[in-house]
Specification:
Strand content: under 5%
Helix content: over 70%
Number of helices: 7
Shape: globular
Distance between the termini: 21 Å
Largest sheet: none
Length: 232
């Protein structure tokens, strides 16, 4: 049965391609870490309670040091796109929609950093209609988050057929479902004073699922490479 390791592809596609795939897999770990660090630093810089400021607001035009959060969106997007490309080259995932969903989510995250929200807070005195780039930001942010939720579920379903991935299948599903449940509370506005905290929690859970898949992929590939070396 085919696995998600690239170790057995080195002879056919070349060592350089395999190294690029490993770099892409590292992006699945680095992207979530950089994005999390960006919103932590940005939240501390604002002078506003984190619970009141949503992630998009940290990159708004009136935010303090918005470039930090913009960089977080862009790095997350580029890393996720690279991770999706690496997954797509895995033998057992070539026909899966999962890698494509990861790449779409990554592209949308880059767009979310490029098209910013108008203001840090959603309401306030003197606020008028939203600009076109604010509206674009809202659309691409929704696409990015939808991809972060659906991609791990699609990948986890495919991983169930591989015994070496059974250990991470359930944790990935739990993380994604917990993220979706947190988002539902956030969207219901029943805990409006804590919107920022709920959103951070929902996004962090979804990104943790991506990082878990990337980590397992790297460990599996390393084990496969060691096995190949031993056979030689």
């Amino acid at each position: 049965m085919a696995t998600v390791s690239w170790a057995n592809m080195a002879g056919k596609d070349g060592g350089a391609a395999v190294r690029l795939d490993r770099l892409g897999a590292w992006g699945g770990v680095a992207g979530p870490l950089v994005f999390t660090a960006a919103w932590v630093v940005s939240s501390l810089r604002q002078g506003q309670p984190a619970a009141q400021v949503q992630l998009s607001g940290l990159a708004a035009e009136d935010a303090r040091d918005p470039q930090v959060m913009i960089a977080g969106f862009v790095v997350l997007g580029v890393c996720s796109a690279g991770f999706g490309a690496a997954l797509r080259r895995s033998p057992s995932l070539r026909k899966s929609a999962g890698p494509w969903l990861v790449m779409v989510s990554g592209a949308a995250a880059v767009a979310a950093g490029a098209f910013r929200r108008d203001r840090m807070l959603l309401s306030g005195p003197g606020f008028v209609g939203e600009s076109w780039h604010n509206q674009v930001h809202d659309v691409v942010s929704a696409i990015a988050y939808a991809g972060m939720l659906t991609a791990p579920l699609v990948l986890a379903r495919r991983f169930r057929a591989d015994p070496r991935w059974a250990a991470v299948t359930r944790p990935v599903q739990v993380l994604v479902l917990a993220s979706a449940a947190t988002l539902a509370v956030f969207s219901s506005r029943t805990a409006a004073p804590w919107d920022g905290t709920l959103q951070r929690t929902a996004v962090s859970l979804a990104l943790a699922a991506e990082a878990l898949i990337a980590t397992r992929l790297l460990l599996d590939d390393r084990a496969g490479a060691c096995g190949s070396d031993d056979r030689r």
